[in-house]
Write a structure and sequence with these properties.
Elements lengths: L3 E5 L7 H15 L4 E5 L14 H4 L8 H10 L2 E7 L7 H9 L21 E7 L6 H17 L6 E5 L12 H15 L1
Parallel strand pairs: 1-2, 1-3, 3-4, 4-5
Helix pairs in contact: 1-6
The protein binds flavin mononucleotide (FMN).
Amino acid sequence: MGKVIGIAGSARKKGNSTTLMRTILKGVVQAGKDTKEVYLNGLVFKGCQGCERCTSNGKCILNDDLTPILDELKKAEGWVLASPIYYDSITGQMKTFFDRCRTFTKDPKTQKLKHQLKGKRKGIVIVTYADTPRKDYYHEAEKLANYLGWMGDFGKVEIISEGKLGPRDAAGNRPDLLARAEKLGKDLFI
Ligand SMILES: Cc1cc2nc3c(=O)[nH]c(=O)nc-3n(C[C@H](O)[C@H](O)[C@H](O)COP(=O)(O)O)c2cc1C
């Protein structure tokens, strides 16, 4: 299968969640895979229109900057989703992207829930936040991980949910965390 694609949901290109995403991808490269980084904040795209047309023709009716990315994600061997926590949830950019992934959840013929992503793939969800470690923030990541299971056979989706990362360079100053992220990327895709 294809490459491993990282989707960054923060506007801070050098921020914590993106740093961890990029570090994971560094490990993925060591495992011999091709990678790609997507910065949602740099794309112009709409949210899901709720038309459910993707359920009858298998494709989203919208045609914008996200369209070629969704096509690439269909073929990708791994998805690495990274988002800060904003007001107890993922960012608007990540939520809007995730809603557009509706096209991967339903059988176009029967309109019933059925994986539309063919074959096995792997997933990692990263959330970063300023507060001390919180179970409810882990659950935010877990929700995305569970919904990936509606789209395809992702097996067990790995989660990095890390607190005490307020300043933009906080993750970059945590060698232990960076080492864990790099190892996760390498070990998962080797
Ligand atoms: C609009 C906004 C809302 C935030 N809300 C929360 C929050 O509810 N809980 C929390 O612990 N941190 C919150 N934070 C802090 C970020 O989650 C934290 O700095 C995160 O690591 C930023 O990730 P980034 O560097 O990848 O952008 C918020 C930050 C912003 C800008």
